[in-house]
Design brief:
about 25% helix, alpha/beta, Rossmann fold, globular
């Protein structure tokens, strides 16, 4: 079987690392897998991108160019919104030349693909959802508006008061494009996301499955607890509460505010907090416990040491 995984980047970001782990797992099982990305960071030869200098330069500009229509909504929230209007200059045609059995989409924003180009891909498409973007009018999280269940418009994320706003236009573009895809399977990486996809108007009638990200148990295996704490310069005589996510302290959806409140109620002096995915936020913390901020983690080795046996 010949498989192509598509993601905006290969190892930069949570979706990228999840897709890359799956790609390597497929290779380890003897499956002919390649990964196609817009921005390549690794030196893995099985990850392909456009190596022409002008295309590399354009790849850096594409996320900014693709977001231009969003800038007209001055009062929009901080939630990411992707129009996916920028032509990819022949990416679908390039995909078709590979004679694939399956095209596996992951996070395809940042100017990687124009919505309409998905219908040009000849091979069956499997699409793993890392957020809500695939079935909304452009937002990556709907802020509980649930407009995707009927049709988008009056977008909460855009702070729009118009029915026929950017979200409605993108929603209609998706509707037309998805109807032209002959073989499409949607994968929710959590049961919640799979349920949202099933309830969406855009994926009504499509096959939707829940299939969590794979984890390599040879990499994420037990590690000595004391040694883990010493390597990370963390106390060995305290109970540690671990909290981590991309944008752990800045993205309100990640739960740092709720954690802060919970810690303010905790009357113990043998507990400290460990945060990864973010540096220390500006301003004083409202809980009295000492906190260790580890910033973003860029490798699985550190992640293994931190998670597997730290607690």
């Amino acid at each position: 079987m010949k498989v192509l995984l598509i993601n905006t980047s290969d190892i930069n970001g949570g979706a990228a690392r999840a897709a890359y782990r799956l790609h390597r797992a497929l290779l380890n099982e003897g499956i002919d897998s390649q990964m196609l990305v817009q921005a390549k960071t690794s030196d893995d030869y099985t990850v392909i991108t456009n190596d022409k200098k002008i295309q590399k330069g354009l790849a850096k500009l594409r996320p900014t160019l693709d977001s231009i229509p969003v800038t007209f909504y001055k009062n929009r929230t901080k939630t990411l919104f992707s129009p996916a209007w920028l032509p990819s200059l022949g990416l679908a045609e390039r995909i078709n030349t590979l004679n694939l059995d399956v095209v596996h989409l992951h996070w395809i924003n940042g100017g990687l693909l124009r919505i309409e180009e998905l219908a040009k891909i000849n091979a069956p498409i499997v699409w793993s959802l890392h957020d809500m973007w695939a079935f909304t009018g452009g937002c990556h999280y709907d802020e509980n508006c649930e407009g995707y269940k009927q049709h988008c418009g009056n977008c909460k994320v855009l702070a729009s008061l118009k029915e026929n706003d950017l979200s409605r236009r993108i929603y209609n573009r998706k509707s037309k494009a998805f109807q032209r895809i002959e073989n499409l399977t949607i994968i929710g990486l959590s049961q919640w996301l799979a349920n949202c996809a099933k309830e969406s108007q855009l994926f009504r009638g499509q096959r939707v499955e829940c299939l969590p990200n794979p984890i390599d148990t040879a990499v994420f295996s037990p590690f000595d607890k004391l040694q883990a704490r010493e390597l990370l310069n963390l106390p060995t005589n305290k109970k540690l509460i671990l909290f981590g996510a991309m944008g752990a302290t800045s993205d309100t959806r990640k739960g740092f505010n709720e954690l802060t409140y919970a810690l303010s109620l905790l009357e113990r002096d043998d507990v400290e907090l460990v945060v990864f995915g973010s540096n220390q936020p500006k301003g004083s913390q409202s809980f009295k416990h000492k906190a260790h901020y580890l910033g973003r983690l860029h490798d699985d080795v550190t992640l293994r040491v931190l998670i597997v046996r730290l607690m």
